[in-house]
């Protein structure tokens, strides 16, 4: 047998791509401590944190308006499944974290959809999960956006657009649909 035949099968790695945007990035350089150049390996049992405290957070945001620890990520495998997921937890007592349209208060957590937008303050982060098989670690790949993510990405609306052409960004709360007959006046 040759060394090629004896070599183990290469394992794919789950990668969390995160694209960061803030309107004052050019002036204040709040992302200057983030490594946008290459993928970074993170052990599966680590809970990487994002915030301004460089002693605690793996990913530092250089902004006094950001909490010491803004949010944390947990990599896990679903029960009775081979699927890997991420959970995001708001660690800020002062700032709500919004994942797509789900608002998280302090210590609230939610599964990260495979593609979503995370917002807090003026920060916008597009998170996209690239599936992999490794159980030992995952990777993060950070990107910097030049334009607002909420403006750049036209995420499909889950709400039908009414005939008058106006649509609300948020679904109306507490209203249930009403049926009507076209022939009634």
Automatic annotation (TrEMBL):
Its main location: cytoplasm. One of its GO terms (cellular component) is cytoplasm. CDD domains: FHA_TIFA. Keywords: Cytoplasm, Immunity, Innate immunity. It comes from the Eukaryota. The keyword Cytoplasm applies. Residues 166-175 have a biased composition (Polar residues). The keyword Repeat does not apply. Residues 166-185 are annotated as: Disordered. Residues 50-121 form the FHA domain. It holds the Pfam family FHA. It is found in: Cytoplasm. InterPro entries: FHA_dom (IPR000253), SMAD_FHA_dom_sf (IPR008984), TIFA (IPR033621). Signal peptide: none annotated. One of its GO terms (biological process) is positive regulation of canonical NF-kappaB signal transduction. Belongs to the TIFA family. This is TRAF-interacting protein with FHA domain-containing protein A. The lineage of its organism: Eukaryota, Metazoa, Chordata, Craniata, Vertebrata. The gene is Tifa.
């Amino acid at each position: 047998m040759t060394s090629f035949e004896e070599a183990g099968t290469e394992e794919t790695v789950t990668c969390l791509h995160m694209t960061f945007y803030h309107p004052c990035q050019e002036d204040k350089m709040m992302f200057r401590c983030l490594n946008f150049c290459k993928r970074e390996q993170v052990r599966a049992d680590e809970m990487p944190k994002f915030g301004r405290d460089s002693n605690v957070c793996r990913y530092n945001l250089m902004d006094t308006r950001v909490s010491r620890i803004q949010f944390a990520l947990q990599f896990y495998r679903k029960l009775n499944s081979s699927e890997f997921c991420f959970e995001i937890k708001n660690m800020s007592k002062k700032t709500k974290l919004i994942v797509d349209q789900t608002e998280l208060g302090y210590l609230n957590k939610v599964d990260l959809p495979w593609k979503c937008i995370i917002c807090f303050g003026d920060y916008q982060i597009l998170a996209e999960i690239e599936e992999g098989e490794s159980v030992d670690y995952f990777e993060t790949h950070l990107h910097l956006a030049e334009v607002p993510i909420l403006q750049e990405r036209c995420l499909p609306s889950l709400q039908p657009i009414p005939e008058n052409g106006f649509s609300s960004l948020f679904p109306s709360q507490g209203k249930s649909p009403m049926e009507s007959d076209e022939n009634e006046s």
